Amino acid sequence: MKPKVYITRKIPDETLALISEVCEVALWEQEDLPVPYEVLEKAVVEVDGIYSLLTDNIDEALISKAKNLKVISNMAVGFNNIDLKAATARGIMVTNTPGVLTETTADLTFALLLATARRLVESSDFLREGKWKTWSPMLLTGQDVYGATLGIIGMGRIGEALAKRAKGFDMRIIYHNRNRKPAVEKELNAEYVDLDVLLKESDFVVIMTPFTPETVNLIGKRELSLMKKTAVLINTARGGIVNEKALYNALVKGEIWAAGLDVFEEEPVPLDNPLLSLPNVVALPHIGSASKKTRMTMANLAAENLLQALAGKTPPNLVNVDLLKG
Ligand code: GLV
């Protein structure tokens, strides 16, 4: 009998074909929107595997309904949308798609940093709105990136890829992480510092940590107040790491200079979120890994993780490795 799988969204045909070859597939494809929780709750009861996206809330209540579930394969590097503890307690494997999106996400992060520093969106709007009357000495002036200090909070794969790009811009690189990374320090001349020192000394503060209970509101009023008035905050990790109210206040009061955000506490970000009213906020719709090639690779890697787990093997990107011990 083929294993039963539920796929929570329309995925590329090629990926669907890979899964359909060996599994009995049901999927949510009514529209390109997240599957309603109640639909997923019913769908999971009998399935052996779930192919999920970061927009699916796979909590304990949902996991407890699944009688045969062996694997939840998330098509994302982040997996904060899944209750890992609840899955592990029931022996359910959770997998993600690390590695394959590192360079693409670092590209986007650096693009957002440049766009925010040099006011690209505001400048483009200025031109299109017919406001460009003449070249003017201080018109739409921004912050220099070349030679500035970059503070990376979270020196994982993507942080390291970002630091490599920054080296080409002759930036001083400082970082904060749970543990030190001697290889990165040596190769990229990066300096490990306390979080407060990073906030005080950086011209660009970039958040690259996973979203965990420890990183909820890691950047709030106090942290923002330590930053330079000319500093730029970039977040391409997860929205909840920054307290948005505190960020809005800091931007309005001129405590920091600008912010580039690819992620928000609530996604899609409501259009009445006050941050969207500020010209010094560059806002993107969570597109860090969105290149055609990388999204295809992520989709297929998530399929591989799913199929390996269903075949009784250890999938390449098992998150809850504790399961291997028991
Ligand atoms: C995107 O945010 C991901 O976690 O892959």
End-to-end Cα distance: 27 Å
Mean pLDDT value: 97
The percent range for strand residues is 5-15%
Bound molecules: glyoxylic acid
Query: How many distinct folded domains?
Result: 2
List SSEs in N-to-C order: EHEHEHEHEHHEHEHEHEHEHEEHH
Largest sheet: 7 strands, parallel
Number of strands: 12
Radius of gyration: 21 Å
Backbone structural class: alpha/beta
Low-confidence stretches: none
Helix content: 25-40%
CATH class of the largest domain: Alpha Beta
Q: Spell out the CATH superfamily of the largest domain.
A: NAD(P)-binding Rossmann-like Domain
* Proper CATH architecture of the largest domain: 3-Layer(aba) Sandwich
Going across the biggest sheet, name each strand in turn. Answer: 8-7-6-9-10-11-12
Please count the helical segments: 13
Q: Which descriptor suits the 3D outline?
A: globular
* CATH topology (level 3) name of the largest domain: Rossmann fold
